[in-house]
């Protein structure tokens, strides 16, 4: 089978995984640097979702590095099914976490003007949410590629 762009065991797939890991880590870092984030459930859910994404992406990036270094083919139906299901699960979790956190951030910063009244660092929340949406974009690309490859096997 021909190597697909973004598929497992390819350089482009490795770049997608590293992008997911990088932006999920940046989202966690921005959120953790804001004081008082743990008081809000949506932000804790975002941290948990991005933490899961870092672990999943880092694990698959290591597998991609192994496949590239030793010239292994990862394009068999069992491995592709595992990748596709894992990518879809993390994609849904990441989109839900990013959307709920964005809703809370907009509510507090624009609608209630809660950030200026309570001295909450809403700009860090906004940066973290932006990074989480970028992470989701990379996950969406990866999950669609996996689904496409799995359908062609």
What is the domain total for the residues? 1
Helix content: over 70%
Count of individual beta strands: 0
Q: Sheet bearing the most strands, described?
A: none
Strand-and-helix sequence, N→C? HHHHH
Chain oligomer state: single chain
Q: Low-confidence spans: pLDDT under 50, at least 5 residues?
A: none
Based on secondary structure, the structural category is: mainly alpha
Structural descriptors:
elongated; 153 residues; CASP-like protein; transmembrane helix; single chain
Structural account:
The protein has one domain. The protein has five helices and no strands. The protein has helices at residues 11-32, 41-70, 77-111, 114-118, 122-152. The longest helix has 35 residues, at 77-111. The protein is elongated and about 55 Å long. 35% of the residues are buried. The model has no long low-confidence stretch (mean pLDDT 91).
Ordered list of secondary-structure elements with their pairings:
Layout: H1 11-32, H2 41-70, H3 77-111, H4 114-118, H5 122-152
What's this entry about, in short?
With 153 residues, this protein is mainly alpha-helical. The radius of gyration is 17 Å and the shape is elongated. It has one domain (11-152).
């Amino acid at each position: 089978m021909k190597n697909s762009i973004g598929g497992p065991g390819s350089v482009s797939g490795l770049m997608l995984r590293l992008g997911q890991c990088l932006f999920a880590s940046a989202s966690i870092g921005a959120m953790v640097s804001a004081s008082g984030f743990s008081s809000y459930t949506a932000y804790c859910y975002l941290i948990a979702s991005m933490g899961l994404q870092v672990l999943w992406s880092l694990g698959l990036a290591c597998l991609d590095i192994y496949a590239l270094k030793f010239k292994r083919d990862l394009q068999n139906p069992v491995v592709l099914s595992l990748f596709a299901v894992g990518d879809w699960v993390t994609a849904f979790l990441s989109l839900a976490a990013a959307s709920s956190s964005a809703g809370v951030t907009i509510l507090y910063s624009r609608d209630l003007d809660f950030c200026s009244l309570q001295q909450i660092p809403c700009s860090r929340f906004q940066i973290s949410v932006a990074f989480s949406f970028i992470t989701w974009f990379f996950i969406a690309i990866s999950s669609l590629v996996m689904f496409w490859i799995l359908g062609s096997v």
